[in-house]
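2.7 Reproducibility. Because tokenized structures are sensitive to small changes in the input, we list the exact sequence used for Capsular biosynthesis protein, including any N-terminal residues retained from the expression construct. No trimming or masking was applied before prediction.
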Amino acid sequence: MEETISLRELMQTLRKRMSLIVLITLAAVVISGAVSFFVLTPIYQSSTQLLVNQAKSDQPIYNPAEIQTNLQLINTYNVIMKSPAILDKVIDDLGLDMSVGGLNGKITVQSEKDSQVVNVTVQDPNPHKAAEIANKVAEVFQEDIVKIMNVDNVSILAKAEVGENASPVKPQPLLNIAIAFVVGLIAGVGLAFLLEYLDNTIKTEQDVERILELPVLGSIATFDEQKDNRKSRTNRKASVRGETVGS
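Resulting structure tokens (single pass, no recycling of outputs):
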């Protein structure tokens, strides 16, 4: 016999397991909020911009061939900027207590699309240190790229600065809580349907017809034995009082 699940059965399952769904969703939200606010370390971000050209020459400023060459070299500049040749000097100049690999993980170097502008972004738990590292990387690169690739026309377009009300870029508690709410809700609903699927007990006449494929001829009503006993004692007391009054 082909089994079908109606929308009514689905809604009944959800209503029956609603407390479980709410509990799991609430737990996910509370855990996510607690971890976001009290466990994860806030990370701040600061960026600086550089304009990198080839060596100065007497050619026109807007030389298409030169600009195309510069664009092709941007990836090379990005790699050099995160190389030990640059980062070792940054660590020494700032007196940082970290390795080149550790500093490399804090720095992101990207070039604007089809341009010679390079963005240097640094993330650190301290917003002032993030700005300091970003500016120092740009400064060391501007000085050393002359010897490395004979590029003497590096301009710093914008230095990294720390605003008055600097806010961390991660974690994002509200986003984490929203994600936890959705995940918790999905997990709760999934668990509710799983428990319903594993529950093979027969509870209603419809279950008998569906599982045994037999018609229901009759049913026995349930009654509360304690309530029935209380009613019997009440009736006996009333009868006794009636007999006393009659005598």
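The first strand starts at residue 44 and ends at 53.
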